[in-house]
Each structure stands twice: as C-alpha cells, then as structure tokens.
Amino acid sequence: LTGATSLLYDGNPGFPDMDVVWKFAEKSKMTIFGTSAAYLSTCMNSRMEPGRDYDLTRLREVGSTGSPLSPEGFRWVYDKVNHDVLLGSVSGGTDPCSAFVGCCPILPVKAGELQCRCLGVNAQAFDPQGNILTDQVGELVITDPMPSMPLYLWNDTADKRYQESYFDMYPGNWRHGDWVKFTPEGGGIILGRSDSTINRFGVRMGSSEIYAAVEELPEVADSLVIGYTVNKEDYHMPLFVVLAPGLSLDAILKQKINQKIRNALSPRHVPDEIYAIDEVPTTLNGKKLEVPVKKVLSGIPLEDAVNLDSMSNPQAMDYFVALAEKDRYNML
C-alpha cells in the first residue's frame, strides 16, 4: 500500500516472554497489528494487560487469524489492549492462498464473529445434501471459483488427492473442511474443523466450545481434544492440557476440569481421560493440529499423518507417537 511500512517480527513471540511483541508494537508505533488467535488467547490466559503496560494508543486495527478467536478473546482485546480498535478476525485457507470470511471497517464488530464474506468469495454453509443454510451450522463451501485457487497439487497423480480433499463431498464446489454458521446479517462464525468433529454418544460437538470452557481455568494454558475409534468399535475422547508453570495434573485438578466442562457444556462433553502435555502441536500460523493427532492415535504412521515441515513445533508430535505405541502394546 502506498505510504505503508511493513513491520515483521522474526523470532518466537513467546521468548524471552510474552511481552516481546507488545514491546515491539510500542517501540515501532505500529497502527495495524496482525497476529494469531492462539497468541491472543495465550496472552489472555496469562492475565496480561498490554494496554496498561505499553503505549498502544496508535493502534487502529488488530488482525487475528490461524484459528477461531473466542468471544472471550474479543472482549480481552477491547478490555486489555485498546478499546478503540477494529478487531478483525479472518478465516481462509493455505491452498487457496486467500481469506474467505473477514473484517470490514464500516460494519459492527460482534464478539466471536467474522463480519462478512470477503470480496468476490461466494462462501456458503451447506447441509449434508448440499442445501444452503442460514443461522445453522454447516460445511464451509466455496461455490464459485476464486483467482487464487490451485488448479492441482504437486506430485498428485491424476488429481486424486486434490479431488478427495476438496470436491468429493459436493462435486463442483470447494468444501474447505470447516464448520461455519452464517448469520442473517451476513456475519460468519467458524466453529472448527469438520473433519475433527467429535461424535460422542451420537451427538456431534465442536472442539472450540470445549477449549473455551477449559481454557477459562487459570490452571490451563492450552488444550487439545480429539475423538477417535478404538478397535473399530469403542469411541475414545481424551483431553490434553498444557498447565500453567509450576502445576501438576493431580486428581483434584482433573476433577475441577471435568466439573468445569460439565457445568459449561454438558456431561456428554466430559473427556474419557485427561493428559498433561508440554505443548499443543500447531501449524506455522498457530492452528491446533487436531486431525494429525487423531490420525496418529488411530494408528496411522506419523509421516502419513502430518507434514512436519508445516509445523511450528514438530517435536510436540513425539508425545502422541509414544502414546499410540503404548496403547497398541496394552491392547496386545
């Protein structure tokens, strides 16, 4: 853009502490701050108040992407960062190299909601039969071509993986693999990956609502929940938590986590087991890798479950590989 200067931070945004990027924002006097929902959520869960500790009065916009930003995350930005900014949550895809649903400076900001479809994007929510839904949760589908959509994938013989990934469910329409709800006003609410949906006792539930409940607890810094089938019959739903520094996962804390989930959601959402982990596996832009973890725990080899080069912390998968091997040994 004419007259604009790009500011890039090269390094770990959590080293030496979570303040490093906010210090950068103050020092550079930036007006637009683009980050990830994971980073904002981590700052929120760490009880940070950047607007109090740093001069962020020049900020006009905060952009968030990578994963859905919770309503609590929206409120934290306005309460603890700057009350007079445009908070723009954006959702798109790596393969299409573009955003689908995003922000608009002339529309109201609603907590947990993306303001509108991006220009030129015919994004819809489809039911299983391919009917358009409004104010109901459905598959995020792009019904018209976009200039940035890929025509093929590298090393994909006869376009097999390309077709299976995006066009199998709704021929001729790009199914992205996210749950979305479009409001009557045109806003969008992203509810997580549809291919990682948890189906507990016949009830389908999104992982984002479990994260919102669990990560409200001060003892929990981050979390990951998945559901998968064991022995082709039994459905297993474990919860993995990253605890605040200095804490350990004992029976009392497990009970507190389960009670929080039961009260905020329902008894059906309570996990079968809770495990403490060092870190949640994420993509380079901070998105939780639910599907690869699900594949590994289901017995799929690591190299077939995830591209480690696309991860910000590939070593985080080691825990789940070891857990899968342990589970297979116990079943012998």
Total helical segments: 10
Mean pLDDT: 90
Low-confidence stretches: none
The fraction of residues assigned to DSSP E strands is 15-25%
Which key features would you list for this structure?
18 strands; 332 residues; alpha+beta; five-stranded antiparallel sheet; Luciferase, domain 3; globular; Rossmann fold; 10 helices
Structure explained in plain terms:
The radius of gyration is 20 Å and the shape is globular. The chain contains 10 helices and 18 strands. A 5-stranded antiparallel sheet has the order 8-7-9-10-11. It has 332 residues and is of the alpha+beta class. It has helices at residues 20-28, 37-45, 50-53, 71-81, 160-166, 207-214, 251-264, 290-297, 302-305, 317-331; strands spanning 32-36, 61-65, 86-89, 91-93, 98-102, 116-117, 123-126, 132-133, 138-142, 174-182, 188-193, 198-200, 203-205, 220-225, 228-230, 234-236, 238-243, 273-276. The mean pLDDT is 90. It is 27% helix and 23% strand. The chain has 3 domains: 1-89, 3-Layer(aba) Sandwich (Rossmann fold); 90-194, Luciferase, domain 3 (Roll), CATH 2.30.38; 195-331, GMP Synthetase, Chain A, domain 3 (2-Layer Sandwich). Strand 7 and strand 8 form a beta hairpin.
